[in-house]
Each structure stands twice: as structure tokens, then as C-alpha cells.
Amino acid sequence: MTPAPPPSVLFVCVHNAGRSQMAAAFLARLGGDRVEVRSAGSAPADAVNPAVVAAMAEVGVDIAAETPQALTADAVRTSDVVVTMGCGDACPYFPGRRYLDWTLDDPAGRDVAAVRPIRDAVERHVRDLLAELGVEARG
Length: 139
Fold this sequence. Notes:
Blueprint: E1 8-13, H1 19-31, E2 36-41, H2 50-58, H3 73-77, E3 81-84, E4 98-101, H4 112-133
Parallel strand pairs: 1-2, 1-3, 3-4
Helix pairs in contact: 1-4, 2-4
């Protein structure tokens, strides 16, 4: 009997430079190979927000090499769970996918001190999602 593939989660925000990058990094770190993770933006920025990179580094997560990616219909179609964070109606809808909308402040234009509570809220949401998916968080 072949084991079921790991659940696939797509995080989407407008610029794919803050919230979705943090969520993807936390899910990859906490879920390991027991989840498939990707992130995208409806209007991707040129680079990940430096304050977000710094805030994540404070908790031992290095996202300095990440680059914002454009949202595609295929990314949504091949995901089991699509988590949106402020992308409005830009996210395509496909029946059979589970959609969640996390209300989180946008870190754009904020300094590291203002990003920390957003980072911590993202981590709490990710831990809750892992529990809902039946995946025990590492660490």
C-alpha cells in the first residue's frame, strides 16, 4: 500500500514579500517533509521585505535567499489548502480545495519591531494549521 502524499499548502498574499514568505518558512521548518509548501503573490514584489528577513532571522529562520513568486492557477489547482492573507479576489478558486483567509497586518513599510508581532501571529496560525492537518510540529 502506497502512503498518501503529504498535504500541499499554498500561502498567498499580494506581494509575496512578507506574510506568505513567513508562513511558508514556518510551515517548512515545523512540518518538514510531511507537508509540501509554496507561496506566491498576486502582484509580487522585487524582493522579500528586509524587515521580515530580519525578524525571521531573530527566530533562527533564514529567508534571505527567497524571492517573491507570481501566483498561478496551476499553483492553486495543485494545492490541497490555499491560505490567503489580504489578496482579496485575486486568488483563483477551484472546487475541492480548502481555502482559509488569515487576517494579519501587512508588514510592508514597517520596521522590525512592528514586524515581530505579525511574525509571531503567523507562527501561531501555522502551528494551528499543522494540527488541523494532523501533522505534528517539529521543535
